[in-house]
## 1
Amino acid sequence: MSEKKQTEQDKFLAPENKKHTVIGPDGEEIQVDPLNDYFCTDLPKVEAPYKGVLEKFLNWARAESLWVLSYGTGCGSIELPPLFSPRFDAYRFGVAMRPTPRQSGVLIISGYLAVKTLKRVIRSYEQMQNPKYVIALGSCTINGGMYWDSYNTINRLDHYLPVDVYIAGCMPRPEAILAGFNKLKERIKSGNAEGANEYIEKLEWYKANQKKIIKDWNMPTYNW
Amino acid sequence: MNELIDHIKARFPIYDVIESQPGQIFVSLEASKLIPMITSLKTNHGFTVLVIFTAVDWIEDDKFQITYVLNNPKEKQDLGIRVFIHRDDATMESIHHLWKHAATFQRELKEMFGIDFPGSPGVDDPFLLEGWDNIPPMRRDFDTKKYSEETYFPRPGRETNDPATFMKQMLYPDD
Amino acid sequence: MFPEADEQGMPVMDLDSQKYIKIWQGPNHPGVTGNMSLELTISGDEIMHAKTHVGYLHRGFEKLFERRRYIQCFPTCIRMCVPEPDINEYNLARGTELLAGIDVPPMADWIRMLVLEMARLQVLLRMVPGQAGTIGLGLGAQWGLYYRELILDRFEELTGGRIYHMYILPGGVRGLLPDGFKDRLEDNLKKVESFMKDIDRLIYSNAVFKKRTKGIGIIPNDWIEPYGITGPVARAAGYQTDIRLDYPYLFYNQLEFDYNLEHESDVFARFRVRRKDVDTTVDLLRQIMAKMPDKGDFKAETPNVLHWKVPKGETIVRCESSRGEYTFYMVADGSMYPRRINLRGPSYTHAVAVLEKLLINANISDVSPIMVSLATCPPEIER
């Protein structure tokens, strides 16, 4: 990273993330640069899918156990708890809620994304393990919906993250979300859901779009 | 309520007294007299609750209207106080010492309208926006549609119709 | 253990001294209500400093209203509070009527009251068992969601929508009740009543629940007016407030009910106030169904909504939501577009000023019970 960019980034950093000196237990001074010391700065590589029966078997296994990150980013999150309640019961489709990105494979963007949330969503998405899929709920993720002229919500999600399935509606009913899960399963089984690899192949384009609207970019380029 | 207005009128130069609903009165006041007046209302007349604290941008008069709505929970009365300040050097006295949550309102007004409240705790911290580098968005000269189209990659194919002309075309195409 | 203070009275906490750790609760956290986050500085288990961060749901509604006509504001404004959208519809409709001087037929007011109480019931069915969900008793929350679906079914039958209804419009409502609607609602109310008995057995008399919630998050009585605390949180401290009784709107003055008061002002007291609110709401729904007329005019004449010029003026409209006082401040400048619509919901103070103060010296495991008991709803803070 160039010197100028570094100072620009420093402007937005929280005080504990700036370069500073820590005094150790024996009185020695330790230089700490949290952004470089605590995060992995390498960029990820494309993982080519296996071929033949093995990939088919893996895709079947992936499709039948979709673990969703329980991150309610917008209005649509009000329809997610009923999805796991007795009436709609998404568990019978192999869909389960997980509290942390490290354990989950599906990111549901439930509605509009404010710029401040987009930053956290990108971070959550990059922390998830491959293979990972994105479901976008609601018309706000497709073209901005009713917030198309708002100064703080994005219009098209596919410019920032690779989207596998869109579910239209404002907000989509739980039945529609279940149909969306089925669509995602078909897509995974047919081997087309390569969003994670697509994200890495076009990383420069995605990052340029993201940095265009997140003006206080103060994290590493790729958050592992 | 009218006794109260007469009482205030004797002590403070209020004008534009309008009763918008029964038990709900709006008055206008000079900005410099605001703190003495609401302190007196709070301590002597039982207006102990701050309900609304917001601003309106009258760009054609080059003024910000700051509205304080105080509520008297015992008498069930509302009193709205309008204060006008200039848009160019928008500064107002802080009331965080009277109500604890006034600091939150002032943080939002600073961010959304650019009205400064010197001395209010945390007034410069960002509240709703992050990394905002344009003019404060709630000012009327900020065009949200233009900003959105320039920044957020609008999906092509979306047309905006003025509803009145659109419906006229639909209903009376021959006119 | 207390941190030292600097000249401005802010605590100085040196994170490198290893006495204090800074952790974030939210925005991606199962225990946080909605999409908001708390920046906590802890020492051991104890919270030394808390700061609320909001803005993750900011859509700039108040800016968008400047570009929309009065009728176009309706689909936008109901999204300001996602769990209970009808209070937004009612407030905006009432404010527009007051500014334009339109009288609403009584039938429309009765139906509005029915819709508002149904909305309150469906929120409370999520919120009352949800209080136990924050300490790990998720069973009641699962049951509650099922009974909430029953009320949502009635909404779907009445309005066509599950969550967003768009039923209350300026001048009245969109239609009359369907045939047999009251019987089906009465059926649902009976089911809800029997469910509340289960909840009493499951949660109310649960020793662990009592132990975890009694004496936690106490709001002193002298905070209520300086902090602007309203609704069930204020009623749990013994403060008499209920907009339905204090400033009767619609036909609430024709119904019989009373303040649900508690005096301990801890999390358990707030839970008990909400539990009593469920009974009150069920009772009110029955009273409304008994007293409302069968037929009548449900919509007053309004000007053509596409070019409706509302005369110049300003007004405040308030109603009681399930969380507290919900106020709109509307300014019209005589054009087709509203000049300013400002919302002040109860969470504006509950989730920022009160929560930051209440969490100091609390245990870190009590954060989500306290947050849920304050019923913080981020969309109405950020709009």
## 2
Amino acid sequence: MKIMKQLMILFLVCLISYGISLVLPFAFPASIISMLLMLLLMLLRIIRPESIRETAELLLANMAFFFIPSGVQIIAYYHVIRGDVLQLLLVCLLSLVITFAVTAFTVLGVIRMMGKSE
Amino acid sequence: MELPQLFYQICDHSFFGVFLTLFCYLIGLWIYERTRFALLHPVLIAVILIGGILIYFHIPLESYDKGGDLITLFLSPVTAVLAYEIYRQRKTLASYFLPVIVGCAVGSGVSLFSVTLFCRLFGLSEEITASILAKSVTTPIAVEITGMIGGIPSLTVVVVVLTGIMGAVLSPVLIKLFHIKSKVAAGVAIGTCSHAIGTSKAIELGQTQGAMSGISIGISGIVTVAFVMIMAALL
């Protein structure tokens, strides 16, 4: 009963967000709108954290699971990248390491400039 | 291997994709929990197992997708509940708002630039470059960007998931390698370079990391769209 109600709330927020994405003048993913809308509704105390707690914790704990079918699509597109697999992996790896380092040190730099510490 | 017709009829029902995904994910979790070896990420194991089974038994991807699409449908509510994680860390977010925003903006720029640079360096085609340019952001935004610049959206989905798995696997290593002691910096870095799959690892590392990673998915996504729109307008 509790979980069903929480799922209803979640899908309602997703549905409203989809509606918002349809009327926006530029293309923007509905799922990000639903995250921002959910945060806004929680900050405005329209949705209390208790109203979604169990479902939120279940979904968050298994978040990566929901990406599996997207990953499986590789078998349909393998022929496009067949000759470039190694290069593709290298691009992903190098870009990931550089992005990670630059982002982390930028955050640290700004925290230091603001004179804050954790 | 060819199996009797009845088998393919059964596989053509949505039950099949849902069952197979759950089954392979649980095997992945089981292996990961026993080995604790970061490279054996449950999603990676599941994707390899499912892909292998479909190819070996000649099961059409369309049959798997009938169930797979039902799981993909949940990506939206899953993204929405990230707000729950962010809400719980709203005080941290409020006091580190500027570093988070600046970190995401700089990181997203570096990601776009480094992908373009390395694709040129390794001689990858324009089509592949366009398909993987937005690989660091969450799937729906990345697909949108690929559509804007003429790549192959399905390849984008695959590379986005691949990057996410890489981020989930490597982030604990990178945190140690670069001596990132700040939980906020670690979280923002994970979310910016490896979106929601990386965030699943950030949540394991701690509440602050998880929430900062979660909010970074949204901010980096928005910033990346803006950057690509500007780049497209200039070129």
